[in-house]
Amino acid sequence: MGQTVAERFTEGCPSMNRQLLPVAVVDDDPAFRRALERLLRGAGYDVDTFTSAEDYLARSGGFRHRCLVLDVFLGGMSGLDLRAELAQSGVRIPVVFITAHEDVEIVARVAPGVPCLRKPFDEELLFEAIAEVTGERQPQ
Amino acid sequence: MTPFPKGFGARPGKLLVAALFAAAVAASARAALATEPIPAKSVLLVHAEDPYLPWVSEITAGIYAALEAGPSPRPDVYVEHLDLARFPSPGHTRARSAWLLEKYRHQKMDAVLVVTRGGLDFVLPIVRELWPEVPIVLIENERVYRDVPVPEGVIPVLGRFEVAKTVDLARALFPGTRRVAFINGAPDIEVSESAYLRSDLQAHLDGLELIDLSELPMAELQNRVAHLPEDTVVFYWGIRVDGSGRSFIPREALRQFAPLSNRPIFSVHATMIGYGLVGGHVLSFAELGKEGGRTVRRILSGEPASSIAPIRKSFSRTVFDDRELRRFDIPTDRLPPGSEIRFRKETLWTRYPHLVAGAIAAFALQAALITTLLLERRRRGLAQSLTGATLASLPGQVAVLNGEGRVVQVNQNWKEFAVAGASSPAGGVAVGESYLAAWRKAGASAWPFTETGIRVVQEVLQGVTKHDTLEYSLHEAGRDRWFEMHVEELRPPGRGAVVVQVDVTRRHDTATEVRMREREIAHLNRVGAVGELASSLAHELGQPLGAILANAQAARRLLARPSPDLEEVRASVSDIIEDDQRAGLVIQRIRALLRGEETPKDTVDLNEIVRSVLHMVGGEASLRSASILPVLATAPVTVYGDRVQLEQVVLNLVLNGLDAVAERTIGQREVRVSTSSALGNVEVSVSDSGPGIRSPNLERVFEPFYTTKTQGLGMGLSICRSIVEAHGGEISVENVAEGGAAFRCAFPAAGSLLA
Predict the structure, then answer these.
(1) Last residue of a domain, one of B503, B524, B548
(2) A123:B550 CB<8 A
(3) Which CATH code fits A20-134?
């Protein structure tokens, strides 16, 4: 398998609705995933959710998302690993890390400059972070 | 009565001569026997029935008893059990006949004894062919041959089932009787017999109503006999096969329904006494058999068969079961004279009147002797001054009590001691007053020691024990004071006692404090364990809290719209509630450990303990990339104990295991928790894939402050050990062959004797 992840998944990228900012949420906790989807959708984002890094790689639909809201600690491949893998494959999607652990410092070391929110966090912090990494503020 | 003739000791010379003479006669008789043996007589015994039926074996025993009695040698007995009931086919009958003819063709026979008519009908032609002149004795019940003639050359020995008399007996004992319940099995080979019986019974009803409980399945019968009308007596014949086709030994069937019967059961079979019958005029099969045996003996001794008259007798006795008589409140003086009462609970007095009378006399004599000695001793006087000095020198409060518990003498400490100016069990009770009364007075306000204290003193005074002690507390001036009371018997028993009271408040407080410190340390250990879990707890709480906030803010957003999607709002709120409960559970599991107090002991399933601990440490384990494998017994593994403490043990062991595997590479970090039970013991063990314990003496790990870790007090395993031992269990450790340590906690199972 000489192909990189990006080469494998950028073929057949569908056209997208540019009215709303497409955001992907990757988190292994179903309750939290559902809550975040509801919140972002209510705030006017186009949201897709994924249960793991592997799930994202399999179903991302050509990396159409403009932002990844990514849990650090996932069963299987971690959020940090996913970000590294994407970067290595030349896929540049801005990331906002979220976590329930004490690993904010690790994120700061491994992925300097990437925002990391500790659960529970306020919606404003999330929207701010997305706006910061994408440079686009979603009209609410 | 002496077995020896009078003058046995008086004339030894004459006796010796007689003995020598007797020996000479015996020797010559033996010589005669050796040269000219008397040929043994032969008897054929034929049973129609299964030899293991109780009445069959009783008849056989009676026959043998009669044949063995008497001067002539016991005849050779040949026994045939035809078992016709179970093998009634004509093919079997034919083959059996041919076989018997062949078997006995060359055998001389002097008499034939047949039990029941079925057997006679079968063997009669065979006997006639083999030994035409040999007399046949038949044992049967009288009713069978009432309307049928006994064949020629057969001497009948007939017993009688006293059905009518037994019904009369029942009516006499229960004067209000209006009904008879008749219990019998389904018809089998004894059809004719039970038909006779029923007609006998009906002929004798004399105005009584018959409740027919024949041919019922056992379960239904058990139900029916439990609800019989009050004016009923029960007559049981026998169940060999019940209404559902199940076979029984009749008296075993009786045993299965009799205890449920609300009315008394009578019958006519002696074999059934003791199996739930109140009683009856019961036919003794042993006596019937004996009579048959005696008749055979008359034939063998040469009496011509034609001169032996048929025997028709009752062979019955009036027998009762004392236990059943009591159950139905029948006083024994209402039984007919000459009744035999079995299973009597005899008192010592009725059984050994002489022994008991003797013992009482001896006891009285001994008491009189003791009194005399005591009086004698008192007259001599005690060394009063010496005693006084001894008492004064003792540090505690001392009182001497007489046999009734009155204070006879006290030391100075006792006199001076008075709680709040009043006398109390600990002292201050004046000479002449009752010490026990002081205890009772102290107990008037729900003092918990009264009962024990009085018992301790009384048992020594009454000589039940020579010495006893009790530790108790008195509340005085706002604090508890603790006393140790020693009660020592004054010998001989009944003379009185010496009471010594020592104030042990300080010792007691120290012990209490030690226990409190131990509890605190155990608590600190639990808090520490929870501290170790802090990061995984943060995760477990962060997830639901994060979801709650996001859902709440999403809902607020939805509601702010001009036409809110209420369905979506409702879904958000439901999720909020669910997540809140999830967070609550996490806190609940931890709260018990953090709480300092002891929880009440109860039956606890070790499987649940392990599951609960795994919930707590699951997050921690995955953080450390280790896996925890529960290997739980399928059935509950119960122990009587304190849930929180047991959780603490398992939690400590699992956390230790997780620490131990930290050095291994990911994928090989494994902690195994298993439960099992065997032979009244239950076990929970925790093993790990770590490096094992590097110590020459493994047991040292349980000592306080022993630690191999860079952080930690080294108290965890020591606490585990004290908790396990407080539960009557044992904790042990070993290094396992595959590497790693295995900790094993064994407890007595809940409900076992040691628990």
Answers:
(1) B503
(2) yes
(3) 3.40.50.2300
Which residue of chain B has the CA closest to A124? B553
Q: Which of B313, B333, B357 is the last residue of a domain?
A: B313
Closest chain A residue to the Cα of B548, Cα to Cα: A35
Mark yes or no for CB contact A100/B579 under 8 Å: no
Q: Which of B181-185, B243-247, B532-536 has the highest mean pLDDT?
A: B181-185
Q: What strands lie across the sheet with B209-212, from one edge to the other? A: B209-212, B179-184, B232-238, B265-266, B279-283, B316-321, B340-342
A90 part of contact set with chain B, CB < 8 Å: no
Q: With an 8 Å Cβ cutoff, is A76 touching chain B?
A: no
Q: Is A31 on the interface with B (CB under 8 A)?
A: yes
Tens digit of pLDDT for each residue in B616-670?
A: 887 778 778 889 999 999 988 999 988 888 888 998 899 889 888 988 888 889 9
Q: Are residues B151 and B181 in the same domain?
A: no
Rounded Cα distance, B468 and B498, in Å: 11
Name which of B539, B548, B563, B568 to mutate to probe chain A: the one with the most chain A Cβ atoms within 10 A of its Cβ: B539
Positive/negative CA dihedral, B524, B527, B529, B532: negative
The whole-angstrom distance between A59's CA and the closest CA on chain B is: 24
Classified as helix, coil or strand, A125 is: helix
Whether B637 contacts B606, CB under 8 Å: yes
Q: Select from B540, B542, B568 the Cβ nearest to the Cβ of A120.
A: B542
* Strand partners of residue B410: B399
B447 in Cβ contact with B418 (< 8 Å): no
Is A32–B547 a contact, with Cβ atoms under 8 angstroms apart? yes
> In terms of domains, do B34 and B138 share one?
yes
Contact list in A for residue B541 (CB cut-off 8 A) is 100
What CA–CA distance (Å, rounded) separates B112 from B129? 13
Please write the tens of the pLDDT for every residue from B193-225.
Answer: 667 777 888 888 888 898 989 889 999 999 999
pLDDT, tens digit, 9 for 90 and up, residues B740-749? 899 999 999 8
Q: Which residues of B touch A120 (CB under 8 A)?
A: 542, 545-550
Give the Å distances, CA to CA, from B641 to B92, B451, B645, B730.
Answer: 68, 28, 8, 14
A51 touches chain B (CB under 8 A): no
Q: Are residues B164 and B302 in the same domain?
A: no
ipTM for the predicted complex: 0.82
The CB-side HSE value for B406 (13 A sphere, CA atoms) comes to 5
Contact call for B554 and A121, based on CB within 8 A: no
β-pairing, B232-238 vs B76-81, is unpaired
Residue B114 sits in which domain range? Answer: 20-159+285-313
- In this structure, the answer to whether residues B323 and B232 fall within a common structural domain is yes
User: Measured between CB atoms, which of B539, B553, B568 is closest to A100?
Assistant: B539
- Put simply, whether A81 touches B (Cβ < 8 Å) is no
Distance from CA of B618 to the nearest CA of A (A): 13
Burial class (CB in 10 A: 0-12, 13-18, 19+), B225: buried
The letter for the amino acid at B336 is P
